[in-house]
Amino acid sequence: MPIKNKEDAQRVLRHVSDEKRFYCHDGKILNNLYELKNALEKISHACYIHHVTEEKNDFARWVREVLGDDKLANDLAKASTQKEAAIIIKDRIAWLQDRA
């Protein structure tokens, strides 16, 4: 879903309900985009590759299906490294905050 207004930006940045959390392979539980960015900066490479392979990208899917940000999901799906994914999210958070 495209971000068209302040409410859309706030929706993407919000804390999700308990049933929509992201559960990392290493046990971390993510509730929002900020926590996803922090997790990508700190999780092990093994945890990252558990969630991101050539066949799937659990982070991009969560961003699309739960947070509703198709652009960010597409950009994450194209990221070639864990570090690049964290930077993409950091930049998107800044963009969203400017609109929220």
Protein model, in words:
With 100 residues, the chain is mainly alpha-helical. It has one domain (6-99). It is 62% helix and 4% strand. It contains six helices and two strands; from the N terminus they run αββααααα. The protein has a two-stranded antiparallel ribbon with strand order 1-2. Helix 1 (6-13) packs across helix 6 (82-99), helix 2 packs antiparallel against helix 6 (82-99) and helix 4 (58-67) runs antiparallel to helix 5. The model has no long low-confidence stretch (mean pLDDT 96).
Instruction: Please report the total strand number as a whole number.
Output: 2
- In the predicted model, the low-confidence regions spanning at least 5 consecutive residues are none
The description of the largest β-sheet is:
2 strands, antiparallel
The largest sheet has its strands arranged as 1-2
The end-to-end span amounts to 16 Å
Shape: globular
- Percent of residues in helices comes to 55-70%
Number of helices: 6
Order of helix and strand elements from N to C terminus? HEEHHHHH
Q: Could you say which structural class the secondary elements and strand pairing correspond to?
A: mainly alpha
Strand % is under 5%
Number of domains: 1
**Rg, alpha carbons:** 13 Å
* Mean of pLDDT: 96
